[in-house]
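Appendix B, example 12.
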Amino acid sequence: MTHPDLHISTQPPYFAGCPIGFSGWADDFEHNIAAIQFSLDGGEHWTEYATPGVSAERGIRWQFAFTPPHAGRYLLNVRARNGSGGVSDLVSGYPFEVCEAPAPSIDKNGKSRHGGPSAQSAPANSLSSPVTGAFPTQQAPNTPPSALSFDASPCSSAAEDPTTPLPYGSFHVRPVGTQRWGASRLYRSGELYDITIGEAAFLTQALGIRTIYDIRSEFETAAHPQPYLMGAKTVALTPNWERRRKDADRRLVAGIIGNYGAPEERMRANYRRYAHEYPLIGKALRSISAEGTPALVHCVNGKDRTGVLCATALRIAGFSYEFITADYLLTNDVNATQIAEEEARLGGGMTAEEHAILMSFLEARPSYLAAFFDEAEAQYGSFEGFVEKGLRLTPEQVERLRRLIG
C-alpha cells in the first residue's frame, strides 16, 4: 500500500522516482471480478490484487500507484480476472511519459527539497518486477452521477471552431449524434493506425478524449496495431464472434461473391449476429458511463460494429429511430472515397448481380440496422428489456449516457 502522506501525481508531467496515480473501470459482464491484474512489460508478467466480495452485477472502480524508476515511455496494461479463473477481454492500456527528476533545491531553512512531487518512501519498481500500490474498490450500485466526477465541461474552442473539418482526419472522427463539434462527448471513427501527431493532439487536446475503445478483431489489430496516444488510455474489446481470419480480396471477388446470397442477405445476418454480442456492447457502454469523460469508439471502417454500438447508445439517449438511421447512413458519405476505391479494386469482371452484392457489403443500409434492433428486441421482448437485461445498464448509467451524448 502507499504511504498515507505520499503525494501522488495524477496529471503530467511525471518524474522518475515519484509515484503516479492511475484509476479506471473494470467489468467482466456476467462474471464476478475476483482480481485486478497489472502489467508494465507488455503482458509478459502480471501482478494481481484480489477484490473479494464483488458480485456479477457490479464493476470495479480501481486505483493504482506506480513509481517509475527512470525516465522514458511506459505502458501500463490493466485487466480483470473473474471468479472462474478467466481473464476479461476488456484490457486497458495507459501510455505515459516520465521525465528526469529535477535537481533538488534548498529552501530558506537550509533543507533540501525536490523540484518535483514528493517521493518519500516510494518504492522504485523495474518494468519486469511486481508493481505495488493497487487499491481497487467496488463501485456502489446506487451512487449518484454527481459523485462519479462526470466531466460536463465543454470541449475547447479548437474543437468548436467551425473551420475545423467534420469529420476530421484520415480516420473520419465525428461526434455521435448531432453533427457539430462540442455537441457530444462520444465520438466514432475508423481505425487510428495511420494517425499523425497533429491528429492525435486534436483527439486528446481539442476534443479532450480520455478513452479509446478499439473493437477490432485480433487479426485486424495484428495487421494494424493500435497506436497508444499520450493523454488517453486504450481499451481493447475483441468481438466474441471474430475468431477466423477473413480476407476480403479472396471472398469478395467475381465468381465467388455470389455464394453470399442475394444483395443485403449476408449483411442482415451479420447484424443479427451483432445483437448477440451484447456482452461487448454492454461492457463498452457501462465503461463509458462509469468514466463519464469524452470517449472514442472505433473498429476498422467505423461502419458495422461501431455503427451498431453507436446506434444503441443514441437510442438509449432518447434519439428518434429516424435520426439514428440517418446518423448511421451518414457513414456512406464519410467513407465515400474508400467505398469507391474498394469497388474499383474488387469489382473487376463482376456481373450486375455480383456487383450489387459487393456494394451491399461496402455500404451501410437501413435494413441492416433494422435487423440488429429486431434481433435485439426479439431476445428480450423490447429494446428496454435488451438494455436492462441484455446490456445490464442501470437507470443511473442510462442517465449518464444521455448526459454524455447530449
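The chain has two domains: 14-104+115-141, 151-405. The first strand starts at residue 14 and ends at 15.
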